Amino acid sequence: MEKTVDTLLNDELLFNIFGRFSLQSDSYKKLGDFENYVYEVYKDGQPIILRLTHSSHRNLEEIQSELDWMNFLNKRKVNVPLAYESTNQKLVESIQTLDGSYFYACVFTKAQGEPVKINSSKFTEDLFYAWGKEIGKMHRVTKNYQPSEGIVRRANWDEEDLLLNIGEYIPSEDTFIVEKTKELISRINSLPKNNDNFGLIHTDMHSGNFFFDDKEIHIFDFDDSCYLWFASDIAIPLYYSILYGFGDKSQMERMEFAKEFISAFTNGYKSENALPELWERHLPYFLRLRDITLYSVLHKKIAPEDRNEKILSWINEMGERIKNDKAIIELY
C-alpha cells in the first residue's frame, strides 16, 4: 500500500466500520494490505472477511459492481464469497478520512478450504483440474450475467489504471515500456470477440486467490475483475505458477511443468465449459500483458527502498521480457 494511504487508516475509523457491520471489535487480524486492507473479523462468533478500499484505488460504483457480480455467481453455486449488507442495508459503506478522501468497506463470507502453496504436496494435477473446473463454471455462468438495476458495468480491461497511466509509475528511462504497452493493447484489441470468448472475468486467478478443500477451489479477491478475453483467466494461473514456483528453474523444467499444468487445467475447464476458440494462440498475449501490469503495480505500490532482492529480480526479468516481446513461458 502507498505510504500516503497508510497514514489515513486509524483505529477510530476501523471501529466505526465495525459498528456499521455489527462486527466484534475485540478480535480481528490483518491478512493483507497490498491494494486493499483485508481483515479476518468476527460476527456472531463466526469468522468473516472485512475489506477496506481507498478511493485512490477504486470508486464506490466499481466496488458495487464487483459485489453485484460476486453475489450473482454465489447464488448460482459458483464457489465465491457472498457479500453481506451493513446495518444500513448497504453492501458498501463509505467513510470519509481527514484529507477528504474515502475508505469503502465491505464484508464477505470466509472462503472454505485452506490455502495451497506452490511447494505444497497438494499442488498437483488434482488441484489444477479443480482450478480449471471452477473457472470454466464461472465463465459459463457469467455468459448470462447482466448488472442489476442501478449498477454500473465493470470496466473494460484497457481502462485499467496500471495500463493507462503506466508512464506515471515506472522510471522515466523506461519509455520503451510505455510504447510496448500501447503496441500490445492494440494487438489484443484486434482479437476476435464474442460471447463465448469474451466477458466479465476474475483476471487475477493465481493460487493466492483461492482456498482448496481437497475437492474444489473457493475463489475470492474480485477487485481486478473486468471485461476481457476468457483466455486471460487461463494464462494467469499458469503465469503465477511459473513465477512463484519455477522462477529459478531452467526453460526445460518450466516447459515440462507448463504442459502438465495446462493439460489438467483445461480438462477441468472443459468439464464445465467449452474452451474459447484459439485460446492457445492468444495465450502468449495475456502472459505478456501480465508482465506489463505487474511491472506497473510493483513500481506503483512498493517504494524503491522497500523492494527486496526478489522484487528487484522480478522487475529486471519482466523488463527484459517486455523489451523483447517475450512471455514468461513460450508454449505455443
Folded structure, characterized:
InterPro entries: Aminoglycoside_PTrfase, Kinase-like_dom_sf, Pseudomonas-type_ThrB. It holds the Pfam family APH. Its EC number is 2.7.11.1. Helix content is about 45%, strand content about 15%. With about 325 residues, the chain is an alpha+beta fold. It folds into two domains: about 5-110, Phosphorylase Kinase, domain 1; about 125-325, Aminoglycoside 3'-phosphotransferase, Chain: A, domain 2 (Alpha-Beta Complex), CATH 3.90.1200. The strands form three sheets. Strands 1, 2, 3, 4, 5 and 6 form a six-stranded antiparallel beta sheet that branches. A two-stranded antiparallel sheet has the order 7-10. The chain has a two-stranded antiparallel ribbon with strand order 8-9. Strand 8 and strand 9 form a beta hairpin. Helix 7 packs antiparallel against helix 10 (about 280-300) and helix 8 (about 230-245) packs across helix 10. The mean pLDDT is about 95.
List keywords for this structure.
332 residues; alpha+beta; Phosphorylase Kinase, domain 1; Aminoglycoside 3'-phosphotransferase, Chain: A, domain 2; two-stranded antiparallel sheet; 11 helices; 10 strands
- Described by the principal axes of the CA atoms, the overall outline is globular
Structural class: alpha+beta
CATH top level assignment of the largest domain? Alpha Beta
What would the average pLDDT be, to the nearest integer?
96
Which architecture of the largest domain does the CATH hierarchy give at level 2? Alpha-Beta Complex
Poorly predicted sequence stretches spanning 5 or more consecutive residues = none
Q: Please indicate the count of domains.
A: 2
Q: Quick one: CATH superfamily of the largest domain?
A: Aminoglycoside phosphotransferase (APH), C-terminal lobe
Radius of gyration based on Cα positions: 20 Å
Tally of strands: 10
